[in-house]
């Protein structure tokens, strides 16, 4: 897991999941095991970045984060998902799978329409 330090993080992947949290926040601590499990499973597709409110206030301001925990998913620098809540493992997994397979599903739909020749 990457840690944001001094309002920066070193991410190399196109898809990034930013977990904005605070040390004093019980829901943040409850979510952290799910975040770690997500990284163990989907590390090939996403960079997982933990953003602590104590040391990264500028990132909180940049993404307009008002509550913790907040999960923001970026593709390059475009925000694909932004929600303040404590997702369980299945909710987070469903969101990540949709983002991973987003492009192949669109390709399949286009091929199907061309194959049928009706549309």
Overview of this structure, please?
The chain contains four helices and five strands. The protein has 119 residues and is of the alpha/beta class. It has one domain (2-116): Glutaredoxin (3-Layer(aba) Sandwich). The chain has a five-stranded mixed beta sheet with strand order 1-3-2-4-5. α1 (26-42) crosses α3 (89-100).
Give a quick rundown of the structure.
Residues 104-119 have low confidence and may be disordered. This protein is 42% helix and 24% strand.
CATH level-1 class? Alpha Beta
Report on the biggest sheet. Answer: 5 strands, mixed
Report the CATH superfamily.
Glutaredoxin
Radius of gyration: 17 Å
Reconstruct the topology from this structure.
Elements: E1 2-3, E2 15-21, H1 26-42, E3 46-52, H2 57-62, E4 70-75, E5 78-84, H3 89-100, H4 102-116
Helix pairs in contact: 1-3
Task: For this entry, give a set of tags.
119 residues; alpha/beta; Glutaredoxin; 5-stranded mixed β-sheet; 4 helices; 5 strands; 42% helix; 24% strand; disordered C terminus
